[in-house]
Amino acid sequence: MKLFCITFLLTFFSTAYLHAQDFEYGKITGSDVELKNTRLDSTANAMVIKEFGTASVQLDNATGKTYIDFEYHVRIKIFNKEGFNHGNIVIPLRIYRDGEDEIKELKATTINFTDGKLVTTELDKKKVFTEKRNKYVSLTKFTMPNLMDGSIIEYSYRMSLPSVFNFKTWEFQSDIPKLHSEYIANIPAMYNYNVSLRGVQKFAKQNAELKRECLSINGTKIDCSKMTYIMKDVPALIEEDYMTAPSNFKSAIYYELSDYVLMNGGKKSITKTWKDVDYELVSEKAFGDQMKRKDVFKELLPQIIGNASDDLSKAKAIYTYIGKNIKMNGFIGMYSETNIKTALEKHSGNTGDINLALIAALSAANLDAEAVILSTRANGVVNNLYPVISDFDYVVAKVNIGDQSYLLDASQPLLPFGLLPLQCINGNGRVINLKKPSYWYDLKASQKESTKYILDGELTSDGKLKGKLTTYSSGYAALKKRQRIVAANSVDEYVEKLDEQMPGISILKHSIENVDSLDNQLVEIYEIEMKVFDNLNADQSYFNPFFIDRISKNPFNLNERTYPVDLGAANEERISMIIKLPANISVADKPKDMSLALADNGGKYLTSTAMQDDSFIFNQVLQFNKPIYDSEDYLSLKEFYSRIIQVQKTDIVFKKTK
């Protein structure tokens, strides 16, 4: 991420004029009609021909408040039916305490080249509708009319944004390629923004000019900096497995208000030090005040703690109590929506209510508890250079016992003590203490995702494999399975669905242990049966031993990936099989023992096959030792998976001996 400040310094401005302006609506050229996806990306189903946006600060004379006026215009070529989804337009609108974003002057057109003529179809305004996603965001939606292969769609709108704190973000990169993306930001001299550039794409052109008297407030004329940014031939950012928020990696420009000049000549600082933020959070009614509410739990503590005598046992008892007594209402946040007392009484609250209540309860038990504010993986990374509270969207508890620290999230009751949900494993969090200065804390998974399969079976004379399959799951693997068991309403329904998902394998009996014992391994014991051979009397028979969690598809398919592979946690899977063979069957051929390794102890894949007496023994190990792999490791990971897939296609060949 690159960071710089836009300040009003005349020496900064270029004297050269960059001819940047919107393109004429509806004026389609022959090159637009003839455009093929081979121009930039032969796999593209749609492509942005031109995209233009401009944003400026304006004054609402009726209210006396400033707002951001944003204009957007785009022209897109749809190459085929797979690209029709790009004709489904969704425009997010933020909802604030004192207003919301508003769309005006929307128009949209589909242009088709039919029988040598351009045929235009205008969007029926009655088919534009608004959907409220939640209390913070609404969505304006419409579908472009008369789409067909080769359609050109074009739409434009004006938007009024009441908040000038975050000047309008511009994304030069999206999930389809762009031939030309251009953005003009007109920023008054009275505002000073910190600007961050994300992504790896480079500007084709950028320029700054002085724009005289762009804004008038109470008769005072204010000059502006006119910032122009252009990118050309921008490749699509393809979302792939194991990535955090796409916004972390898209080439885009972000603004955060640092300070502004008052009309009386004074200066108002917006970007604060962490010392300022600490004071504000600790004093905040919906945050620090809730952390202080030890009184809510004083009378409840004897009941909550019970016979627990040591601090760790007390902390676990409190964690369990909060998780059971305040259910998440579907909203995440770092602030309490009401207050923790009300959340406890109503047994419902957002993640802020739940985890701030947890901190207060731990503190009431004289345990050293702190708050950790963080940004979830879907929300993006936080800015470590200066405090930006709007970067954070979540809070968890941190309890320090002896020389150990435990991060806790009681909003997900299936999480074992000390394990955060993967959505919270995202860079650094900021620890907020009621009495001490805040500090950064590395958010790491305290446990890896671990699964072990043990199959003890027998190949019968009728060509069936029968036996006991025992699965041991811990960490995130156990969490995922417990979540599926709860979603299925019962263990029996979970097993029934599991049976349906494994064609060729029948589960005859089952037993699952430690479903509610979250600190222990989840143990699944299945009596299984599967058809291996149709004709056991054939001279040769084939059996693929990689039928447990077989990898059939490579999760990495790009030629290049410019963002890291983020697993969230280290991962390990082990498979062990002992299969007793009939007396007249032996192994004629088997997969070669395999040993693959990633560089720098990044991971490994091992297989081994052997005969012991009358039993066939098979072992497999797949490990990923790092939670995050750099983009430079991508091609190695891709090749690693490709070789595993090839290995797992190999059969064991059995032969008849009598």
Descriptive account of the structure:
The protein is mostly beta strands and 658 residues long. The chain has three domains: 266 residues, Immunoglobulin-like (Sandwich); 169 residues, C8orf32 fold; 208 residues, Sandwich (Jelly Rolls). Helices cover 15% and strands 42% of the residues. It has ten helices and 37 strands. The chain has an eight-stranded mixed beta sheet with strand order 7-6-10-3-2-12-15-14, with no helix packed on it. An eight-stranded mixed beta sheet has the order 27-28-26-25-31-35-34-33. Strands 1, 11, 13, 16 and 17 form a five-stranded antiparallel beta sheet that branches. A hairpin with a 2-residue loop joins strand 34 and strand 35. Helix 5 packs antiparallel against helix 7 and helix 6 packs across helix 7. The chain is globular, with a radius of gyration of 30 Å. 33% of the residues are buried.
State the end-to-end distance: 70 Å
Number of domains: 3
Would you tell me which CATH topology of the largest domain applies?
Immunoglobulin-like
Mean pLDDT: 90
Q: Share of helix among residues?
A: 10-25%
Reading off the top of the CATH hierarchy, the class of the largest domain is best stated as: Mainly Beta
Oligomer: single chain
Structural class: mainly beta
The strands making up the biggest β-sheet line up spatially as 7-6-10-3-2-12-15-14
C-alpha Rg (nearest Å) = 30 Å
Query: What is the global morphology?
Result: globular
> Which parts are unreliable, with pLDDT below 50 for 5 consecutive residues or more?
3-20
Taken as a percent bin, the fraction of beta residues is: 35-45%
